[in-house]
Design goal:
By secondary structure, this protein is an alpha+beta fold. 29% of the residues lie in helices and 25% in strands. The chain has a 4-stranded mixed sheet. The radius of gyration is 22 Å and the shape is elongated. The two termini are 26 Å apart. The C terminus is likely disordered. Bound molecules: ligand EPZ. The site of ligand EPZ has 26 residues, from helix 1, helix 5, helix 6 and helix 12.
Length: 446
């Protein structure tokens, strides 16, 4: 068990390459099993969600290897189509394997996915889309048994809500269907465009990603391919909000600025100075951030719900008022009570929250979920005194070596055992960033 200990009030500075995108690499890895061959994925971040996905691939009979930020998946010898509950529960995106397995093997057996507790997260849109492609899906309690006995057939699928996961699941499944599938009302996130790029490299025929209408010509023979994952726009947003909270000047590379332009415009309205060139973002913050017009989360190209908590944390330590409206998830304000422990003035009613910027003070706080945990680190960097952030397993799901990355920007952050309070020092300190992990399956030794 470990925690971060952060001394706030030190401006950030320096240059940083942003890690590959979690929400792109997870569907890409699921897509790799569509092709009976070897795929090579570069810029693959080292995250617990990625490890869980590689566990699933290995369990299904794929040969998996990692060397630094490059992962190789050989799905030629795929042998299974059932995923055990313990792996499904690790994260939400495990459900994407449903479409991929149906397309590749004609069957899939798995239970409902886990993931961040952000309120109800049904998969009804996923199942409706896959049934529209001809899948027979039996739901009994926790388990889903899916077959495509009569084969998958291309169809016109209408998504009543642009769900990211349902769009990805339907795209993967449609690659194995005979004929053309038209997805109307599809999600438009940049991660969907990255998935389209990879699928076309595998030999599929997909077009329209990034628009509300995605077309998939199914039934084409697929083969392994090589792909570099896009930069993570939410991680980039986190480092920018950290700089907004602590002050300073940073340069980020390896991420497409337009993929996070709603976040950039909020930081600019709050008083930050921005300069974007190619895949480079220069950000400067010299005074407390000020309040901005209301922030409504929405499907892309609207303001990303995944950046709500981190922007809120940066503004909580600023001056002035901002209204947030969380439209994507029912309960995505679990971080508020922890920010209030740091002295933040935040009032919540239903899906709305009003933040009034004021000075923050170090405290011991607990991560509640992935982005909520990152928000506490952002707030701590701008707070006075020492903050301890616990429950880091949430943060490790989406941030590769957060403490090392922030230290690269000059932050005073250390990784310590959680029983620091007892004053007992077990000799583990910040020079050994990784906490002890449970025994690893063979492929991780590679
Ligand atoms: C993806 O989740 C991301 N996860 C989430 O990021 C992100 O918050 C979300 O998209 C929205 O942008 C990954 O890509 C792995 P949705 P997903 O299906 O696919 C409802 C993070 O922090 N819905 O677009 O699960 C659902 O309940 C994570 O990195 C249905 O009602 O999101 C939610 O209210 C957290 N029925 C809304 O749609 C369905 O069948 C958006 O969900 C599917 C979704």
């Amino acid at each position: 068990m470990s925690m971060y200990e952060i001394q706030g009030g030190r401006p950030l500075g320096g240059r940083l390459r942003v890690q590959g995108a979690k929400n792109s690499v997870l569907p890409l890895l699921a897509a790799a099993l569509l092709a009976p061959g070897q795929s090579v994925i570069h810029n693959c971040p080292d995250l617990s969600d990625v490890s869980a996905t590689l566990d699933i691939l290995a369990l299904l009979g794929c040969r998996v290897a990692r060397e630094g930020e490059t992962v190789t998946v050989d799905a030629a010898a795929l042998s299974g189509s059932a995923i055990p509950e313990r792996l499904m529960r690790e994260m939400r995106s495990s459900v994407i394997f449903l479409g991929a397995l149906l397309a590749r093997t004609g069957s899939a057996r798995l239970c409902y996915p886990g993931g961040c507790e952000l309120g109800p997260r049904p998969i009804d849109l996923h199942l409706a889309a896959l049934r529209g492609l001809g899948a027979e899906i039996r739901e009994n309690g926790e388990c889903l048994t899916c077959t495509a006995g009569r084969g998958l057939r291309g169809a016109r699928i209408h998504l009543p809500f642009p769900s990211v996961g349902a769009t990805e699941n339907a795209m993967l499944c449609a690659c194995g269907a005979q004929g053309v599938t038209t997805l109307v009302g599809a999600a438009r996130e940049p991660e969907i465009v990255d998935l389209e790029r990879f699928l076309n490299k595998l030999g599929a025929r997909v077009s329209g990603a990034g628009t509300p209408v995605v077309t998939i010509e199914g039934g084409h023979p697929l083969h392994g391919a090589e792909h570099t994952v896009m930069g993570d726009r939410i991680v980039a947003s986190t480092w920018l909000c950290a700089c907004g909270a602590a002050g300073g000047e940073i340069v980020l590379t390896g991420v497409e600025p337009s993929s996070l332009d709603t976040v950039l415009s909020c930081l600019e309205q709050a008083g930050g100075e921005l300069e974007c060139r190619g895949e480079e973002i220069r950000f400067r913050s010299t005074k407390p951030l000020r309040g901005i017009p209301p922030v409504h989360t929405a499907p892309y190209p609207g303001f990303p719900t995944d950046a709500q908590a981190i922007l809120m944390a940066a503004l909580a330590g600023g001056r002035g008022q901002t209204l947030f409206v969380e439209n994507m998830f029912e309960s995505r304000y679990r971080h508020v009570a922890q920010l209030q422990r740091l002295g933040a003035d935040i009032r919540v009613w239903g899906r709305s929250a009003v933040v009034t910027g004021c000075p923050l003070y170090g405290q011991r706080v607990e991560s509640t979920d992935l982005r909520g945990g990152a928000a506490l680190v952002v707030a701590a960097l701008g707070a006075e005194g020492t903050t301890q952030v616990t429950q880091l397993s949430h943060i490790r799901r989406g941030y590769q070596d957060m403490e090392g990355t922030l230290r690269q920007l000059g932050a005073d952050i250390r990784l310590l055992p959680t029983n620091r309070d007892t004053g007992e020092d077990h000799g583990i300190c910040e020079t050994q960033p990784k906490a002890k992990t449970p025994p690893q399956p063979a492929w991780r030794a590679l």
